[in-house]
Every structure is written in structure tokens, then in C-alpha cells.
């Protein structure tokens, strides 16, 4: 029999599956050094996954030259990793709930390290793409289960702070990745980009022993549902890659994806714990958070992709100057992440998300319309406003998403949260591709910034549908 859909967010997370909740809270009372080791292992694994993506972006031209392939083919080094992440998030969340979060987390870190070692040894592009796929599968486990694991270690009233730590690590790793990659490439060959991750990954494996053991449900994996999920999202990723050059193939892939999605929903809707968390999506609070997340990440990605083009092509800035002018955005996210984590436990989610969305939209609009040619440094407070708005929106929205789910379904909530993020990022990149295709190169970046602002305003309006009640701290 299906569980009733959680409708009251925090209350359902406290009342449903009380036995699991008590185990998780008991785990939070373990000695502080063990608790800190558990938290550190989860956050360090997340940092490795994010660094792996950001340092590889920097190295693509070098990798293409070293392996003697075209720049277009080298993009598959990125695409393979992103596709594996997107396809595997929900299945990895389901495996975590079934076999236990700690066990699957350690499997995931092990797969990530195996893929990283393959990257170090890769003699050809095909080998490297296969290694990046394996890295993506391992990374999907970490991304899907990170907050679920933290939820087992910290009391529920500290969940906002834990999500703040999560956002802090992601922002710092994203900001540090390009600089770290450039520094390594200045003194070593590109395989060292991956070699430096290996010892830290081994430390994560050792520290993960401090994570409390909570038994899984022992549900059997539904391989057909996982295959349909891979078909739905894999078709979308490929369609996004060929949308400007092969419209007929894009339409066919989107049709195939839609058909598989219908089949998957029909197969999963009667299950107690479906792969696609339909049980959670029946909750108005959870559903609003997911929709708002997709919209916000779409708008943010469009802005992050458009801004370097605007600085470089329209304002004549070099690569170094462009990087420095972009840096205040992720640094502001990192600076305010913990503050926002505490704030999200004390203020209404709807209010925080609305204010965050408006701040991000205002920053993007200012970057597009302000006469930066006369005063380029004005971009710094505008990008800081973007970072502040995104931090405020993201932490509050994610906290609400997890509190709208029972503790036993934290893995599914994490998988859905990661899927929403990656779908938004993919959609943002597709929007940029289409705008560059249909608009003059000089006007496309500014128009994209305005589109990103509009999407974040829309995300704020969607978030306003959440009840304006004070969060329970």
C-alpha cells in the first residue's frame, strides 16, 4: 500500500518512519570527533566531484592537443561526465535507500577513484571518455546522497546549516577549480589534474567509516525502470548536444524521451518508493521546490555562460580579467552559504526564495543593461548581488525540499534535487546555444542575461506559492 504523500513538509519528516528518524538522531549524538569526521568525509567527497568538473573544463584545449583530437570531439570529455551524472542520480538514490546510504556512498567514492585512475592512465580519447563515464557514475552517488548522509549525522534543526555547508563547499570548489587547473597545467601534464585527486579520495574512504550505519530497506533494484530512466535522460542530453545542427534528430530524440517517460511513470506510479519520486512530487511543497529549482538553475546557468562572452567579446576583456571579474559571484555564494543556512531555519522559505530570486534577477539585469564600458568595476557589486541571491534562494529551497520528504526518502529527495539542478543547467546551456544561433553575436550575451533574470523572477513567483510560515528551528 502506498504511503500518503507528505503534505506538511517538516511535520511529515518528523512523524513518518519514526524508527529511522530516531536512529538518525541517535547518530547525531555520537562523539563530536566522529561526527566531524563523518561530515568532513561527505563534504570532501562533494568537493572532489565538483573540482573534477571545474578543473577539466580548463584543460580541454590541452587534452585535445595531447590526444590529437579536434576541439569538438574533446567536448565529449565533459559531456560523458555530465550525462553519467544526470542519468545515474535517481538510480543511485534508490540504491542508497535500498542498501544503506553509507555502503552505497563508499561504493560511489570507490567508483569515482577507479575512474580517476583510468583518466590518469588514458592513452586515447575513447579511454578517457569511458573513464569520465565511470567518474560520473561515482559522482552521482556522492551528489545524490550527500545531504541524506548529513541528515543522518546532524539533528533536524541543523539541516539548514548542513545545506549551507554543502553550498559553501560547492561554491569554493567551483571557484578554485579553474585556478587550480591552470596552476597544475603550468608545471605538469594534464593527467596530473586527476592524479592530485587520488590521495584525497583515499582519505575520504577512510573517514567515511565514521558515518553511522543505518540499514536500508533491501528493496530489489528495478533494472527495467533504471533502463527507462537512462533512456529518458540520455535522449535529452544527446538532443541538447545536436539541437542547433540536426533539428530532425533532435525532434526524434525528444519524442523517444517522452515515450520512455510515459512508460516509466506508468510503471512506477503504483510503487511504494518509486524511482522517480512520484510519492514526494504529490506533496505541493516538494513539487514547488523542484520546479523553482529547475527555473533558477536554468536562469543562473544562462547568466554564467553569457557573462564571459559579454566581457570578452563586447567589452574587450582578456581571459585573466574575465576570470577575475567573474570570481565575486562564487565567492559571495561561499561567503554567505553558512549564514543563509542558519537564516533558512528561522525565516519563511517562500520569503527567502522570493528575495533571493529577485536579487539574482536584479544582478543579471544590471549586468546586461548597465553601461559597463564607462565603469567596468560596477560589475563587481552586480555579480556579488547575483551570488547573494543565489545563495539565499538555493539554501532555503533545498532545505524545504528535504524537509518535505520523510527521512527514509532522503535519498530520493537528494536524487531529485540533483536532477533538477542538472536539468536546469542543461536547459540554460541549450538556451545559450539557441540564442547564439538566432541572434547576432554582439547582442546574444546581453539578451541571455535578461532571459536568465526573467527565469529567476519566475522562480521567485513559483516559490511564493509556498505557505508564508516561519520555519521551525
Automatic annotation (TrEMBL):
GO MF term list: transmembrane transporter activity
Pfam families: MFS_1 (PF07690)
Keyword match Oxidoreductase: no
This protein's record includes keyword Transmembrane: yes
Membrane-topology annotation of the record: Multi-pass membrane protein
CDD domains, A to Z: MFS_MMR_MDR_like (cd17321)
Keywords for the protein's UniProt record, in alphabetical order: Membrane, Transmembrane, Transmembrane helix
Transmembrane region(s): 36-55, 75-95, 104-123, 129-150, 162-186, 192-211, 223-242, 248-265, 286-311, 317-337, 349-370, 376-397
Main location: membrane
A GO-annotated cellular component: membrane
Domain Major facilitator superfamily (MFS) profile: 33-471
Locations listed in the record: Membrane
Signal peptide (UniProt feature, chain positions): none
Name the record gives this protein: DHA2 family multidrug resistance protein-like MFS transporter
Amino acid at each position: 500500500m502506498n504511503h500518503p504523500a507528505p503534505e506538511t513538509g517538516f511535520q511529515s519528516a518528523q512523524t513518518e518512519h519514526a524508527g529511522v528518524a530516531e536512529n538518525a538522531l541517535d547518530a547525531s549524538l555520537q562523539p563530536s570527533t566522529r561526527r566531524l569526521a563523518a561530515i568532513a568525509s561527505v563534504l570532501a567527497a562533494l568537493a572532489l566531484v565538483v573540482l573534477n568538473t571545474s578543473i577539466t573544463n580548463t584543460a580541454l584545449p590541452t587534452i585535445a592537443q595531447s590526444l590529437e583530437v579536434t576541439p569538438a570531439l574533446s567536448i565529449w570529455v565533459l559531456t560523458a561526465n555530465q550525462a553519467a551524472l544526470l542519468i545515474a542520480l535517481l538510480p543511485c538514490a534508490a540504491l542508497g535507500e535500498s542498501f544503506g546510504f553509507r555502503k552505497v556512498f563508499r561504493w560511489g567514492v570507490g567508483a569515482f577513484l577507479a575512474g580517476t585512475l583510468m583518466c590518469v592512465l588514458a592513452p586515447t580519447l575513447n579511454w578517457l571518455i569511458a573513464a569520465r563515464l565511470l567518474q560520473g557514475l561515482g559522482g552521482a552517488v556522492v551528489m545524490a546522497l550527500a545531504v541524506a548522509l548529513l541528515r543522518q549525522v546532524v539533528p533536524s534543526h541543523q539541516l539548514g546549516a548542513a545545506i549551507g555547508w554543502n553550498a559553501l563547499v560547492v561554491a569554493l570548489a567551483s571557484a578554485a577549480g579553474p585556478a587550480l587547473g591552470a596552476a597544475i597545467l603550468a608545471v605538469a601534464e594534464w593527467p596530473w589534474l586527476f592524479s592530485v585527486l587520488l590521495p584525497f579520495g583515499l582519505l575520504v574512504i577512510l573517514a567515511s567509516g565514521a558515518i553511522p550505519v543505518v540499514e536500508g530497506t533491501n528493496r530489489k533494484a528495478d533494472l527495467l525502470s533504471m533502463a527507462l530512466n537512462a533512456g529518458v535522460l540520455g535522449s535529452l542530453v544527446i538532443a541538447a548536444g545536436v539541437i542547433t545542427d540536426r533539428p530532425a534528430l533532435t525532434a526524434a530524440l525528444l519524442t523517444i524521451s517522452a515515450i520512455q517517460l510515459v512508460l516509466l511513470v506508468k510503471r512506477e506510479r503504483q510503487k511504494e518508493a518509486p524511482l522517480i519520486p512520484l510519492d514526494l512530487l504529490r506533496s505541493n511543497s516538494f513539487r514547488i521546490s523542484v520546479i523553482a529549482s529547475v527555473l533558477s538553475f536554468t536562469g543562473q546557468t544562462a547568466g554564467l555562460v553569457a557573462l564571459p562572452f559579454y566581457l570578452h567579446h563586447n567589452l574587450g576583456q582578456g581571459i585573466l580579467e574575465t576570470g577575475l571579474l567573474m570570481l565575486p559571484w562564487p565567492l559571495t555564494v561561499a561567503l554567505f552559504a553558512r549564514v543563509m543556512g542558519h537564516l533558512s531555519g528561522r525565516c519563511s522559505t517562500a520569503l527567502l526564495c522570493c528575495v533571493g530570486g529577485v536579487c539574482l534577477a536584479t544582478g543579471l539585469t544590471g549586468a546586461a543593461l548597465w553601461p559597463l564600458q564607462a565603469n567596468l568595476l560596477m560589475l563587481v557589486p552586480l555579480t556579488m548581488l547575483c551570488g547573494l541571491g543565489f545563495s539565499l534562494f538555493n539554501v532555503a529551497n533545498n532545505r524545504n525540499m528535504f524537509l518535505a520528504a520523510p527521512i527514509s526518502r532522503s535519498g530520493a529527495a537528494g536524487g531529485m534535487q540533483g536532477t533538477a539542478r542538472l536539468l536546469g543547467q542543461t536547459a540554460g546551456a541549450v538556451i545559450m546555444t539557441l540564442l547564439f544561433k538566432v541572434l547576432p553575436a554582439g547582442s546574444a550575451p546581453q539578451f541571455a542575461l535578461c532571459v536568465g533574470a526573467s527565469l529567476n523572477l519566475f522562480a521567485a513567483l513559483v516559490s511564493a506559492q509556498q505557505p508564508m510560515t516561519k520555519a521551525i528551528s
